[in-house]
Amino acid sequence: xxxxxxxxxxxxxxxxxxxxxxxxxxxxxxxxxxxxxxxxxxxxxxxxxxxxxxxxxxxxxxxxxxxxxxxxxxxxxxxxxxxxxxxxxxxxxxxxxxxxxxxxxxxxxxxxxxxxxxxxxxxxxxxxxxxxxxxxxxxxxxxxxxxxxxxxxxxxxxxxxxxxxxxxxxxxxxxxxxxxxxxxxxxxxxxxxxxxxxxxxxxxxxxxxxxxxxxxxxxxxxxxxxxxxxxxxxxxxxxxxxxxxxxxxxxxxxxxxxxxxxxxxxxxxxxxxxxxxxxxxxxxxxxxxxxxxxxxxxxxxxxxxxxxxxxxxxxxxxxxxxxxxxxxxxxxxxxxxxxxxxxxxxxxxxxxxxxxxxxxxxxxxxxxxxxxxxxxxxxxxxxxxxxxxxxxxxxxxxxxxxxxxxxxxxxxxxxxxxxxxxxxxxxxxxxxxxxxxxxxxxxxxxxxxxxxxxxxxxxxxxxxxxxxxxxxxxxxxxxxxxxxxxxxxxxxxxxxxxxxxxxxxxxxxxxxxxxxxxxxxxxxxxxxxxxxxxxxxxxxxxxxxxxxxxxxxxxxxxxxxxxxxxxxxxxxxxxxxxxxxxxxxxxxxxxxxxxxxxxxxxxxxxxxxxxxxxxxxxxxxxxxxxxxxxxxxxxxxxxxxxxxxxxxxxxxxxxxxxxxxxxxxxxxxxxxxxxxxxxxxxxxxxxxxxxxxxxxxxxxxxxxxxxxxxxxxxxxxxxxxxxxxxxx
Length: 728
What we know:
The structure is a single chain. About 35% of the residues are buried. The chain contains 18 helices and 28 strands.
């Protein structure tokens, strides 16, 4: 029924004969549901051979049963899904003959299968049950569980953590040196190479040899001309992009008088500054889904990639992040984290470590003398392997690579100038300089270097290795030149997550902006992150996807065991927190945990299965055969063929889930205390893939079983994994 003039205090109702309502008593009339500002609807199901239905419309006050206004005219008669006679207007006389309200009436009859009828009734019955978490605020703490123990004695809930440890599927239990996981030289896989290491100077292209010859500092001017606009012009107020976290801007004076900008990070994340410099727009690129240089992503990342390809300089479509810094300043660790983050976002990213190239070319047992600035032979050898690594990275970019992380000290202007010459017209370079003035952190990093680096694997005497590395470090310090040229990001004393500075110069574009935002929120503070699915739900028992049902008996038992586990594992971690989705099965799983704040994240909700929500896969196959069989067609992007990109009708894909999880990842990186994440299978697959650095295409197939805790340990040695299975 439709009318724009129905007053808000009058609600349309239907009353009539036994088959439809069961009473001509207006007090028992059925209320119609409001579908829009002008439309009211009542749906009911009858068999095809139903008996004749007599009914009429009436208007009732919203908060009382009288007075009612019954429509004028004879009863309406419905037979076989069709109204007898015309679908006449419903006429109501509100105040005698002076105020008449006329409403259009629509009758729509659909044939409904018994299965659909049963599914509708099941959904109706489940929706009648009130949520058990209604009224629980988004942030809670010290929620005391019900007294007593159900589904098991108190003794059965006592946990010996180690007896529940199960093997992790991918990561090793030992510490892996990050540089060993980077790219290997391409020349190792070329035929016809017969040198001991597989790398020769003949592998270099002529353009690279020219850049190498120009890398002799004696042939380069001591002062490189850099043009930087005045801060008041380069960073106008309208060009600032401000985050909600605390940050301050001020100008700083460099050694040569060049002006720039620094951000004092303080407690929160800084505001980011967009450079006012503009580049010529060039667009001759094909924008199809399979085009090279396009990330495997959805949402903002995909939109930004399209915009960059359409409007940015061609070389800006490929980005090189060139690390700069003294040894033991966390360059490789930072590079590894950044590589992992960009890959997870969908950007084709590789990490090239020059130290690995050097060890393959010249061996791993080079003494500190090899790194002296006055050792011309050693300098040429180091520049050669740096050029080879850069050449490999550029060649990979020409084949479709998007972001290359070039990991080396790159501590002199002449080395950086060589790299810029090689990259000219091929990719955009951003220097990322890591600076640490905390001697305690430097000493810790040095000791870790001696313990883990292949450079000292054959040195049995730890103290001898320590002396050699400190001598190597002194050689670098004598000739170190801070970055003052080109586009750069400087991370100063940011490794512990408390304060520090982030300096940004000539940085613009979506991806560089995301990199800055990621770096300002990352640190090396060791802490565990615990990932677990909710306890078994009733929909898990029924084999239904999605939904928002409560826990089964087994799920409630797991919630109690999880609380005991958290209490024992985090008993000394008073600042830990519990994160859940907004669905009641995760909130109920967290309910027995006491002593820690609990935060509900909408971003942690299960993947939206759209119209398939609440169905089993057999029901989808039976009632949506075209959607189910779509998986069998060649080159399809359906769930069976490409689960990463498959989007449920009116729902989400895994790529959509990754996009909404980015704020969760940033906050997990920023947190300095342990976090327990209680979420859902698809969401935890995406989160786990980030920490384990798993390829995007594997995400939909990662095993995240029920009643299992995945502990991710983050710290200076990288990411380690441990699993606990509390229940079968």
